Amino acid sequence: MQEIIKIENLYKHYTLGKQVVPVLRGLNLSILKNEYVALMGPSGSGKSTLMNIIGCLDTPTAGKYILNGNNVSTIAENSLAEIRNQEIGFVFQQFNLLPRLNALENVALPLVYCGIGKKAREERAREVLEKVHLSDRWHHKPNELSGGQCQRVAIARALINNPSIILADEPTGNLDSKTSVEIMEIFDTIHKAGNTVILVTHEEEISRFAKRIIRLKDGLIDNESVQNNEVREKIEIPSKPIDQPVIEPKIESEIQEPSQPEIQPEAIQPEPSIRIMDESDSLV
User: Fold this and answer.
1) Residue 207 counted as domain residue
2) How many domains are there within the chain?
3) pTM over 0.85
4) Would you give per-residue pLDDT tens digits along the chain (284 residues)?
5) Domain limits at 58?
6) Domain with 131 in it: what CATH number?
7) Residue of 2, 9, 106, 265 with fewest CB within 10 Å of its CB?
């Protein structure tokens, strides 16, 4: 099967004053088209840095990154942003929805940057909202939706440009266990539709939904997990009819933040600069 991601001898380091902090140390990785992969690893293992490079939010210090046949390792930021918008749909733990826009408008936002007219944007947004079982909630704003419904809106927004890859960073981190399973069912449907899904998580139960688990340790693929050929059969989840609304819980459990660990190299990396559209920008 065709490789959609090929990473060769990838290095990434950050400079803190006069100190050079290595994060990725000659990593090699291959992901096939339509694979469903979970990236795991402890704090400081390099998984967040690797996710940023795979998502074209950051560039490597050295090495090669081939995305869908294109070497994006040394591409200029403007071209990198264009490839990112065309190839990758992002789903984050915090949803990143604009509070004053309704679900339909939030989903349609990426199409504004593409210069697509309002009517076409809304038609496409309705299509993807139906895929995540929210066609009846399009007019609601984020504060009128549950956490699970907000994440469905975020997933629909990630699908709006028909990307090759869905990159999900801890997509269930703010959700209770029941809602987490429902969200993972949507990723399963996305994968079956032909998308490559890359899931970044620290939760073993969530990683079991992926077909292959890649564990990182000290900036490299953990050789032990490779030698053990860590491939799991996906959990079978009962399918829901496309027109069946999903009942969201009224109250979601509080998430208890873990105590702050000892500072690791990843903690000092700069935040990727992503321009989130301001609410004052015109949507016409």
Assistant:
1) yes
2) 1
3) no
4) 799 999 999 999 998 888 999 999 999 999 999 999 999 998 889 998 999 999 999 999 999 999 998 899 888 888 888 888 889 999 999 999 999 999 999 999 999 878 889 999 999 999 999 999 999 999 999 999 999 999 999 999 999 999 999 999 999 998 999 999 999 999 999 999 999 999 999 999 999 999 999 999 999 998 765 544 454 444 444 444 333 344 344 434 444 444 444 444 444 444 444 444 555 454 44
5) 3-244
6) 3.40.50.300
7) 2
